[in-house]
């Protein structure tokens, strides 16, 4: 059966691998194998892949650049999809940026600045794709990417394409109301500005992130959401947990809300550190920290 499913998927998508190690596709460099790992270049291929998953009752996971996720050591027993090809295309139309969900967020930030358009500077240094950033409503405490979204292109799990206007979207801290659909593209409204000023702002914000976060390390981004009126990193640090190491996983010495893979970490190591943080912060402050990263598989 596995060979038959692989044959059907292979004919429907752009590229297919079986038993593909997911540690090669996540910023944590952690994760067991995907039963099927597929890349789709067009909406037609995506539609076909969704229909085959439904036909064979296969779990489906859309994975962008693999940030903000922790995939289990046993991997994912289903289809992992990556949006490639036309899903990475983008163009500027006056003050609007129209982009596929698979485009690199960092590239879009830089290209917007080069076009003399501001609004995306606060997203500089955040890893991932545009689709992942919108799904997690990425940004800072003051500004979110959701504030820029004018409309979204999505495909439902019934393989139906839809365009959602701003009025149909609800954004809040690190989430939006699109859990049961696949983001395929977006239209963002930016503002005209002075190119040099925007580039200087991007550079300053990037330097700030580099100084305060573990740049270049294997990590997934912030592990926990900030509780109202406080900082998860401050709470964790005040519990004396900076630098705590289990196996190959370590709470960053630079920012306590980051866990880094020092080279040999497995999902079990990271989950153990998460459990310790949960317990210590709850014990000292009575606060139950909420995960910002998504846990996938066992």
Task: Determine the number of helices (DSSP H or I, runs of at least 4 residues).
Answer: 7
Total beta-strand segments: 19
Distance between the termini: 24 Å
Radius of gyration, in Å, reads 20 Å
CATH topology tier name of the largest domain: Uridine Diphospho-n-acetylenolpyruvylglucosamine Reductase, domain 3
Number of domains: 3
Mean pLDDT metric? 95
SSE ordering: HEEHEEEEEHEHEEEEEEHEHEEEHE
CATH architecture of the largest domain: 2-Layer Sandwich
Q: Please mark out the parts with pLDDT under 50 across 5 or more consecutive residues, or reply none.
A: none
Topology, please?
Layout: H1 2-12, E1 15-21, E2 33-40, H2 43-55, E3 60-62, E4 69-71, E5 76-83, E6 90-93, E7 96-100, H3 105-114, E8 117-118, H4 130-135, E9 149-156, E10 161-165, E11 171-172, E12 175-176, E13 181-189, E14 191-192, H5 195-212, E15 218-219, H6 232-238, E16 245-246, E17 249-251, E18 259-261, H7 267-285, E19 294-296
Helix pairs in contact: 1-2, 3-5
